[in-house]
User: Fold these one by one.
Assistant:
Number 1:
Amino acid sequence: MPLKEKNIILGICGGIAAYKSADLISKLTKMGANVHVVMTKSAIKFITPLTLETLSGNRVFTNLFPPPKGDPLVHVDLADKADIIVVAPATANTLGKFAHGIADNLLSTLILATQAPILICPAMNTNMWQNEIVKANVQRLKDMGFYFVEPEWGELACGVEGYGRLAEVETIVEEIKTILSSKDLAGQKVLVTAGSTQEPLDPVRFLSNPSSGKMGYAMAKVARRRGAEVTLITGPTTLTPPRGVRVLGVKTALEMKNTVLDNFEDASIIVKAAAVSDFRPQRFFNKKVKKTPGKMEIGLKRNPDILKELGKKKGNRILVGFAAETHDIIKHAQKKLKEKNVDLMVVNPIGIPGAGFGSDTNMVKILDRKGDIVELPLMTKEKVAEEIWDKVVEIIRSG
Ligand code: PMT
């Protein structure tokens, strides 16, 4: 768990987006992080320290002078204990101070005193964000190794639409996790498939299955966090593309096969979490098929088994397959592991509440070539992804 027991110092500057820091603190603490808030003088005008103290469960720091609790070294204490410093929202004024080493309040002093990674999440008026001085300051900080989650497009407090709105809290949390994760997949090129395929019958109908893409997206997200370069080949989903991942959209099993094969050579690890339709309608009707009296039949054609094809040409690549099974789970998964020549087969039972299709959680067993089976309890798909990547890392390390 990348955030469990981590000390996160959250710097808050004076801007309307300061209210979002309440949600950020609440999400981080729920994930097990210990959040210590440092506010600038103007931040206090937008949100009260008492609110943030209540949410974080820790004392909120506002001033360098007089020293809080009479402790003149509070900036050093916080700087030392930090696993990461996050500044959200960061104003143009504070960016300017950071970029030029000005230390005239607790937050800017802390930035000079720490050796922890620093993530800046700016929010400001569009014209300010596009101002050449601000751009130069941002570039200067990036060159010095500061991490950024850049502002998003949207309606701003000043009434105009443009870039400048604080990034979504989920995006900031994902970046914190990425910065704090171990990089044991660095140098790996990972190809993940996710979601269902849709096999069209006519312009308004298709054959498909309930895969939401959540399991595959979690695999892609966690791989990126752990340092891999990730390509995600996805069937139609309603999910937001993961940050920092190359996403290629497909619809049918044939499109998925072609896109996988186009990207296979380059990959060192392939994860097939997609629920690929084994069949497609024998023919596609150009016009909507009308109801007719009596029996109606659809002829079906086999789709290629993409994973099986990859198994034949895998070479040194690591191949991870998924299986959705309703009964004799282990027996079927072991058979698929052998037949498809994969290194790991992750099997999820279908029909158990909270596992398999559509849910945010899953309950899987991970089978390997040696015959070992890891049985995991019900947990989030992200946590399942962590466990699967741990197994992959073991395989990489064992050579
Ligand atoms: O997307 P979610 O809602 O989060 O749900 C996750 C999931 C249940 C879809 C996922 O965890 C999962 O189990 N995916 C594989 C489901 C499946 O297609 O199982 P299968 O037993 O039919 O196929 C076994 C493996 O062969 C899979 O890796 C599949 O990608 C691959 N396959 C299958 C058929 C085919 N024509 N080509 C393939 O490559």
Number 2:
Amino acid sequence: MMKNVLIIGSTGQIGSELTLALRSRYGNSKVVAGYIRGAEPVGILAESGPSEPADITEAAQIAEIVKKYKIDAIYNMAALLSATAESKPQLAWSIGVQGLFNLLEIAREMNCSLFTPSSIGVFGDETPKDKTPQDTVQRPKTMYGVTKVSGELLSDYYFKRFGVDTRSVRYPGLISHVAPPGGGTTDYAVEIYYAAVKGKRFECPLAAGTFMDMMYMPDALDAAINLMEADPAKLIHRNSFNVTAMSFDPEILRKEISKHIPDFQMEYKLDSVRQSIADSWPNSLDDSCARAEWGWNPKYDLQAMTADMIAELRGKL
Ligand code: AKB
């Protein structure tokens, strides 16, 4: 059982909810919210437990926090998402690979376990598109994909070579009503709900027929926590597991939202960068290894997620 946890990127799309979920599970004082300057925690995130500046590119700063709080598990939620990484490839490498390398070295020296999300972005045009297997071709052409494949390889290397307890899932598009994503290819599937609830027409950046895997945030948090708590003896894979909860294209999503908001309007205004990234990603993943090795079992399908998103956003907006 892990005792003291550090979240890198605690104010981001996943980190802000994961930090609170881990605090309610392990105790508020046990979970340190790491952040970069300019993205300080506010509100409940700031008030409910300790926080420290923790820039993934500053190894010494992170080593100090690990020492100070006797950290034994690190959740590495720092990343540039896929579309942003295409416009800032050098920074994407520095955060995604050099930053991960810093954490792996700290984990090796100071005996921490390490969770680092990977992504459906590790796959590319040569990968089978439907029911994409756990173990298959990984030749992405995006910088995001290159950093995520490198991260998977480095994490497996540190496990095999040094026994560092590294674990990871390949997240699909994540949908939440709490913190917005930024710069991802799957972000449209969040933005569409905000537009629909505000009564606005939505300009969809991806074409009809563009299928991708997606997941509601409560399931994404469970994936990280359950994998980190899983019995290591049962893990055949580590970095990284296919996980998914649903697969849809913009038309299917529009129709589901229209069941709740009948006058919802959507038009297509394609973004060529995002479209070419989406076209290179799978239509649907096979997540049977995650189900078999650590009991992955998502709770939300498209219908349940849409009902909850719309109810939550109606309360918030
Ligand atoms: C992105 O679109 O870049 C991310 C991802 C699927 O990794 N949401």
